[in-house]
């Protein structure tokens, strides 16, 4: 189950034995192509009236689908509805009279069909008649064997580390994988096509076994970034159902992008700016997302694009009305109209100018105050490069304070002056972040302020912003897990004590498979308190299933939003591990187990007492010290068990990791005032 970077080719084996090739997932083809539309495409295929389409749903067996609808070319203009548990095959219109014929001639309602994915190497090994050759069958066997070995190794590791995972279920999946692999071997010579099919099934069962072998934390952030495309409340519900099915608990909903809000903004209207992105006219997506997500146990954070306001040549909805708010590139000084940054192509608002800064904060206060967003996720909260901007406001402010027009400065001829100028801009950016934090915390103290720094200027800035953000989600956007870990570790080293860090990952965006997506979540799991995936719009059904079977199997409390409850959940997890794993398997002696349970009981009693006496989420002023004191008792029980030989080293390490994690969350709660 290695990372296969080759493009995927797809075909279907129909009930009559025929093989039908289709274009890669969600990539529209040209004339006379058959295209596959997954749920990530949207709610409808959107194809024209001339397209013939077949609707398939999952059967519960890997790679096997049932035909539930067959639409002739006279179907609805918006195309077929894409089922959340299936897909649509669409024959795009061609120049011949029988375009779409293969769909109509060979698919029948009720038929079972099998979906195959192949690499180009496998495709090259198909016979001239479209059949599958022996080398392709052997390659399929090798892939299945590799998948099974990977899953077996993961399951062995879970046993060695005394992980609390569903071993019986994982063993059952691997048993099914081995059975299909054995059948594939027997068929390889006489029926290569059937052999490849069985190998694919073995891979699918092995993936399930692998996912079930992975530990699932009950205190972690499980987030996704998402740009809304829904057209009504019903479609929002479908999207959120898919998100909930994956096990996530935080949604970073893109709420301000291209200069527009997705909600009808009073702040925008008060400034003469378009009150809402016209795409969402007539309804309020933010209101629906917040309310419907809450019903599913998902907290919504308003993800905003900060001072970057899009690529519209006119400057977009904000700068068209307020061109004086524009940040100005050096080579655009003197122009009457806003100009984009030549490096990024984006238009930016001026961070130094208090008017656009106040406008942006006003939008955020609406998101938190009017809609009850659990947090604000900040992106593009800086200028795109050093020495930017040269707006009239900036030049005047700098000249008044320093006595020099920054436009006259040159990095080569006056390095000291240039360094002072860029430091001044940097300080303005930092002041902008402080203002956001101050204003939002005054409005709603429990609001979580997070930043998602990308490599470059934002990553370098994160140490300076540690005091004015609660959670950092570095964009560790790499295909290789070791590079993900390096990035998260580097960012964590810049943070002050009391900040949390989630790994920002993008396996979905670059179309990595379900195995690679799940594996990336473990790249820095000993360093982070959760992860966020970019972006859910690219999540397929296999990804959702793998996440829920694997790392997001158990329900989890978000440590950023509810740190003290997360501590309680960690302690409950520790008790469960003791009773279900350590004691039954001899990783903890009865004496050590009894001492640990007694110490944990004292913690639980203290926690319950504090929670009962609390007014809302906020506990007594001495709550942190009291909880830390109780954790100290658990630490002593662990140390005593280790000294007496009553704890297996793997169990002792796991217990210590859980206790350190709990202490980090208490430190975060104390420093940030979030309960």
Brief overview:
By secondary structure, this protein is an alpha/beta fold. The chain has helices at 101-106, 120-124, 134-160, 167-187, 192-212, 233-246, 266-270, 285-295, 316-321, 354-369, 392-402, 415-443, 457-465, 481-494, 514-520, 541-549, 563-582, 590-613, 623-643, 649-672; strands spanning 9-13, 19-22, 34-37, 52-58, 64-71, 86-91, 112-118, 221-226, 250-257, 260-261, 299-304, 375-378, 448-451, 471-472, 500-501, 503-505, 530-534. It is built from 20 helices and 17 strands.
Q: Could you describe the 3D structure shown?
A:
It is built from 20 helices and 17 strands. Helix 6 crosses helix 8, helix 10 packs parallel to helix 12 (415-443) and helix 18 packs antiparallel against helix 19 (623-643). Helix content is 44%, strand content 12%. The strands form two sheets. Strands 8, 9, 10, 11, 12, 13, 14, 15, 16 and 17 form a ten-stranded mixed β-sheet that branches. Strands 2-1-7-5-4-6-3 form a seven-stranded antiparallel β-sheet. It has helices spanning 101-106, 120-124, 134-160, 167-187, 192-212, 233-246, 266-270, 285-295, 316-321, 354-369, 392-402, 415-443, 457-465, 481-494, 514-520, 541-549, 563-582, 590-613, 623-643, 649-672, and strands spanning 9-13, 19-22, 34-37, 52-58, 64-71, 86-91, 112-118, 221-226, 250-257, 260-261, 299-304, 375-378, 448-451, 471-472, 500-501, 503-505, 530-534. Mean pLDDT is 90; it is low at 1-7, 25-32, 95-99 and 126-130. By secondary structure, it is an alpha/beta fold. It comes from Paenibacillus aurantius. Residues 118-127 have a biased composition (Basic and acidic residues).
């Amino acid at each position: 189950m290695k990372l296969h970077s080759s493009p995927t080719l797809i075909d279907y084996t129909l009930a009559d034995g025929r093989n039908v090739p289709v274009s890669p997932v969600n990539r529209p083809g040209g004339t006379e192509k058959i295209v596959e539309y997954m749920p990530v495409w949207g709610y409808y295929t959107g194809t024209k009236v001339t397209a013939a389409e077949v609707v398939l749903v999952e059967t519960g067996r890997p790679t096997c689908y049932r035909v539930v609808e067959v639409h002739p070319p006279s179907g609805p203009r918006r195309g077929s509805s894409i089922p959340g548990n299936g897909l649509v095959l669409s024959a795009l219109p061609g120049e011949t009279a029988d375009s779409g014929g293969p769909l109509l001639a060979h698919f029948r309602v009720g038929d079972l069909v099998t979906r195959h994915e192949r690499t180009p190497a496998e495709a090259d090994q198909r016979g001239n008649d479209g059949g599958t050759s022996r080398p392709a069958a052997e390659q399929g066997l090798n892939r299945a064997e590799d998948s099974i070995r990977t899953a077996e190794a993961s399951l062995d590791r879970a046993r060695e580390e005394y992980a609390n995972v569903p071993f019986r279920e994982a063993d059952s999946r691997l048993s099914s994988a081995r059975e299909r692999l054995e059948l594939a071997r027997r068929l390889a010579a006489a029926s290569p096509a059937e052999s490849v099919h069985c190998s694919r099934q073995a891979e699918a069962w092995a993936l399930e076994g692998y996912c079930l072998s992975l530990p699932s934390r009950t205190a972690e952030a499980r987030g996704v970034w998402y740009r809304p495309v829904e057209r009504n409340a019903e479609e929002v519900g479908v999207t959120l159902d898919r998100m909930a099915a994956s096990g996530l608990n935080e949604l970073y909903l893109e709420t301000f992008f291209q200069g527009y809000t997705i909600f009808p903004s009073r702040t925008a209207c008060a400034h003469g700016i378009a009150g809402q992105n016209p795409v969402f006219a007539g309804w309020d997506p933010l209101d629906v997302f917040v309310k419907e997500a809450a019903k599913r146990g998902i907290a919504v954070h308003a993800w905003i694009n900060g001072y970057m306001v899009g690529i519209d040549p006119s400057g977009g909805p904000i700068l068209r009305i307020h061109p004086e708010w524009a940040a100005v590139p050096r080579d655009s000084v003197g122009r009457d109209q806003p100009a984009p940054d030549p490096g990024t192509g984006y238009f930016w608002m001026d961070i130094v100018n208090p008017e656009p800064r106040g406008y942006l904060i006003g939008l955020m206060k609406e998101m938190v105050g009017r809609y009850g967003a659990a947090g604000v996720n900040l992106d593009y909260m800086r200028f795109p490069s050093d020495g930017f901007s040269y707006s009239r406001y900036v030049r005047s402010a700098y000249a008044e304070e320093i006595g020099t027009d920054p436009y006259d400065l040159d990095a080569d001829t006056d390095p000291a002056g240039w360094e002072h100028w860029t430091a001044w801009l940097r300080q303005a950016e930092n002041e902008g972040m402080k203002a956001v934090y101050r204003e939002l915390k005054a409005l709603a103290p429990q609001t979580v302020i997070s930043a998602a720094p990308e490599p470059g200027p934002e990553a370098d800035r994160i140490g300076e912003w540690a005091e004015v953000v609660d959670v950092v989600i570095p964009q560790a956007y790499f295909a290789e897990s070791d590079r993900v870990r390096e990035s998260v570790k580097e960012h964590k080293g810049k943070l002050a004590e009391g900040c949390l860090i989630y790994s920002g990952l993008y396996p979905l965006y670059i179309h990595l498979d379900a195995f690679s997506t799940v594996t990336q979540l473990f790249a820095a799991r000993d360093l982070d308190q959760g992860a966020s995936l970019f972006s859910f719009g690219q999540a397929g059904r296999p990804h959702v299933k793998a996440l829920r079977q694997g790392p997001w199997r158990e329900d989890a409390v978000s440590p950023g939003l509810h740190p003290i409850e997360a501590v309680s959940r960690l302690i409950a997890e520790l008790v469960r591990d003791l009773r279900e794993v350590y004691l039954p398997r001899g990783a903890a002696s009865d004496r050590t187990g009894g001492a640990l349970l007694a110490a944990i009981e004292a913690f639980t009693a203290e926690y319950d007492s504090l929670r009962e006496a609390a007014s809302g989420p906020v506990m007594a002023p001495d709550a942190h010290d009291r909880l830390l004191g109780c954790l100290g008792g658990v630490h002593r029980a662990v140390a005593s068990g280790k000294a007496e030989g009553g704890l297996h080293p793997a169990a002792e390490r796991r217990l210590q990791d859980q206790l350190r994690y709990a202490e980090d969350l208490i430190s975060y709660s104390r420093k940030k005032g979030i309960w």
